[in-house]
Specification:
The chain has 190 residues and is mostly helical. It is built from 8 helices and 2 strands. It has 3 domains: 115 residues, Cytochrome C Oxidase, Chain D, CATH 1.10.442; 30 residues; 42 residues, no CATH class. A two-stranded antiparallel ribbon has the order 1-2.
């Protein structure tokens, strides 16, 4: 598997020369990665192993359900973890459940169930939306009260009815307008 990772790492990091590609560290804990990239990333990683290509070709750790294989182990190598890794090379039936869990937690921070568990983030999103709506409502009320001029009288229902009555009396649009829909003999709408 480590041999298949090398071409992907080289393709994603086009700036490497052939001399830099020749210096590749290969052991059972780390994937094939060019020495230039390894030397650049290891001060940030500490004593953690690079074990794969990663989500975007850079050795970082992130828990993502759609990409379950991070490029580095979660915890740094300690003597206890190194001893467990030596023990895991043998028969797994000899490992206790606690040792298997310790090995898993050394490589991964969360299980799939923990990654996919609801976080309650929707509550903060909903509260931010409601806060934004309430601030907007208060701002509109402030504008209507102190900034905007009062509505003109043409908006009132009474004024509109009086205007319509005046248009009918003046016979505006007698052929196909408003006045054509009024029955002048019976004083009602047709």
């Amino acid at each position: 598997m480590a041999g298949r990772l090398l071409p992907r790492a080289v393709r994603s990091l086009q700036t490497l020369t052939k001399g830099q590609l020749s210096a590749v560290r290969m052991d059972h804990h780390s994937a094939a990665l060019p020495a230039a990239i390894r030397d650049k990333q290891y001060p940030k990683l500490g004593n953690r192993d690079i074990v794969g290509f990663g989500w975007n070709g850079i050795p970082t750790y992130i828990d993502r359900p759609e990409f379950p294989c991070p490029a580095v182990r979660f915890r740094e190598n300690t003597p206890e973890i190194l001893a467990l890794r030596e023990k895991e090379k043998g028969d797994w039936n000899k490992l206790t459940v606690e040792e298997k869990k310790a090995l898993y937690r050394a490589s991964f921070r969360q299980t799939f169930a923990e990654v996919n568990a609801p976080t309650g983030e929707w509550k903060s999103v909903l509260s931010a939306i409601l806060l934004g709506l309430s601030v907007s409502a208060w701002f509109i009320m402030y504008l209507r009260k102190f900034v905007l001029s009062p509505l003109p009288e043409t908006i009132n229902r009474e004024w509109q009815e009086a205007q319509l009555e005046l248009m009918v009396k003046q016979r505006q649009g007698a052929v196909d307008g408003v006045a054509s829909k009024w029955d002048y003999e019976n004083n009602r709408w047709k």
